[in-house]
Each structure stands twice: as structure tokens, then as C-alpha cells.
Amino acid sequence: MIIDSHTHMDTGNGLGIGIENSNPKELAEFRNMIREKKLGVLANASCVSEFEAFETIEGAFISFGIHPWNTHEFCKSGKGENPLLLDEQDWVKCIREKLEGVKEYFRGAHAVGEIGMDSVWCSCNLMLQRELFIQQLEIAQSLRRPVVLHTKGQEKAIAEILLNYSLKKLVHWYSCEQYLELFLEQDCYFTVGPNYQTSNAVKKVISTVPLDRLLVETDGISAVEWASEKKIRVAEIPDVLKGSVRAIAEAKGIAPEIAERRIEENFYRFLGI
Fold first, then answer.
1. Number of domains in the chain
2. Backbone angles phi, psi at 62, to 5 degrees
3. Residue 221 sits in a domain of what CATH number?
4. pTM for the whole thing?
């Protein structure tokens, strides 16, 4: 079975963050495809309402974590309050208390993520991002959950932080042409993003990462549309993923059906299933 190892199942706001703007028809199409075993998914929930929506989809695997893009909002200690005006002791305590409030969702998920740091597409304070990231790694470690990582612009810093944690680690859509070896040394898994034909960084992931640590992903319909510069329907998602599988098969010198089977094995091994 073809498996989308990291997707937001496009919830309607262009980023896949916040189920409040969800597209019921699209979610229903995903639900049917997953139920019919035409697609496997690790669906990322970045808030409680997303987790609860994905939980209703039979056969879906769920990752739960506070995305670095949501850092400022999540770290507010009160309505309208800027966390950067608080001293360090206060905002560290605030993050810890808020994470404790959603601990049951971390516990109910198959993986913790996506979590990490981002200095490219995000203006959230990096000090807060780092603290939120580390505290979620601590939760993953305590629950023995694998983690899904967002590393944009902070690849080196994240690789160094990860050295302190004995976790299964999935680096999603690695798009940096540096520091790949820092993650390879930690035996990380990697997803191949949908821009495998145009991104030198993604091509390097395909050629360099061992086959038993490779997975494929879409990152949601919006991400595929961004990468392909065209509209995508839910029904096309398996074919998008199979394109990534074919690219991996060609690079590794094996048949696509063998690559697909190996990638499926990698997925279940990563989740510990």
C-alpha cells in the first residue's frame, strides 16, 4: 500500500493548521480512500480539534504536536499578552503548563510532531521555538513516541539538540543542502517531498539516505500544489506519492514495486508497529 508518511490532509486554510476552516468534502474523500486501503497516512494534528477530527478516520495514523509556526499563539500566558514581555522563568512555566493540558493527545497519538524550529517561513521568536521544541521532545521521550521534525533554516541547531534524545526521528521534507550528515549520523528517517524533480536538496536525500530510512510524503494538498504549480485532487494523491517512489527506485536501482514495499516496511518500523 502506498503511504503518505506526513500530511496535513489540507484543512482549508492553505497551511493545514486549524481544523476550523476544514473542507468536509475533502476530508470525506480522504476518509473513503483510507478505508478502502488505497492510501495510508500519518496525519499531522497541530491542535486538539484537528486530532479529534482525524481520530474519526478509520485506519489513519496520527501525529500530534505544536508546530513552530504556532509558537507565539501557543505560548501566550493570557489573552492579548505578549510572551516576550515575560521573563524566562514565566514563559518556560507557561509552555510547560500548556503542554501538560494537551498531554492526553500526545499520549493518544502514534508520533509527536510535527515539531521543530523555523527561521525561514516563520517570524516566531527562536528562543520560544527552541523551548517549545525541547519540551515536546521531553514528552516524546517520556512516552516513547517517535518524532516528526520541521527543520527549516535551523537544521544544524536541531541536529545538535537531537543528540540528547534516544528517539526514532523522522526529518520531514529535508530541503537544505547542508548538514544532512548530522542527521544521517543519528540514523534518522527522511521523507521525500513532492518537489523531488526540481530540488537538489531532495535529490540528495534520495541518493544519499539508505533505502531502509526513506519514506514518501505530500505534506498536504496545498504543499503538492505549491510544488507542482497546479491544482491537485484527493484522488491524485496516491499517484503523486508513486512518483516519489519511482524516483527512489531509480536512484537505488530496484523495481518500483520493491521500493514501495520497502517504504511501507520503513513506515511501520518507524512507528514501532
1. 1
2. -125, 135
3. 3.20.20.140
4. 0.92
